[in-house]
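Long-time lurker, finally posting.

We've been working with DUF2567 domain-containing protein (Glycomyces algeriensis) and I want a structural starting point before designing mutants. I don't trust myself to interpret raw outputs, so I'm hoping someone here can both generate the structure tokens and explain anything notable. Sequence follows.
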Amino acid sequence: MTDDAERTVNLRPDDSAGREGAAVAPAEPADSQGSASRDGSAARDGSASRDDGGHVYGRSPRSERTIGRDLLAAGFLAVVLTALGVPAAMLWQVATPRVEFEVLEGGWASIETYPSGYVEGDLAFAGIGLVLGILAAAFAWAAMRERRGPLLLLGLVIGSIGCQVVAWKIGAKEWQQFWDSVERAPVGAHVWRPPSVLFVELDPAAAWAALKVGNLTTALDSLQLGALAVMALAATFTYTVCAGWSRRPSLRTDAPE
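Top reply, 14 upvotes:
Generated this for you. Predicted structure of DUF2567 domain-containing protein:
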């Protein structure tokens, strides 16, 4: 081979590389290499920011929603609200003005001709229930986001009624102690009547006895909640309004819109 032929072969390295079966890849520009490295690092970062369950760190994983867990949350809420009946009764007894009575020979009489304390007891009881119902619904909506739904609303209603029933029973006990003290008080003594809920007729035993004989009207007459239903109505209304403004059909904040 002459010198001119050798120089021609050296000027064509692609042909020689192709003949040897090992083609050389062209070098990538600097920009493409930088973007490739950035994509690789982003992919590594993305894979590192996820756990084995496919959840991105920084987000709370969505818990499985079952009827059993919803019932457990609703029962817990009902128990907590029912326990609030004790401080609610104390607040009611302190905030409501009492009616003054004077013990007479063979009986007793109020100092005022038409004391307003009779009605103020029911109004204060209903007002406390109204505020507690709104606060309870707002707390259940905000603190129990993963359990929002009809079962939680049921627990809210049952707990609200239980709260006011407990407060009413404590007031009835105070009422009975008052009349016992009146009977033992000497003539001319002044006693102060504690607040009580007048417009309530709640006797589950009588209602059940009436239902067993098929008397529905008498059963309903024995289940007149009156002011005992104020907290439940306020809680239901507040919770329903919150649900109506929700953008998600499931009402859960971690569910897609």
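Before you design anything, note these points.
Residues 68-198+232-244 form one domain.
Strands lie at 99-104, 107-110, 190-193, 201-202, 223-224.
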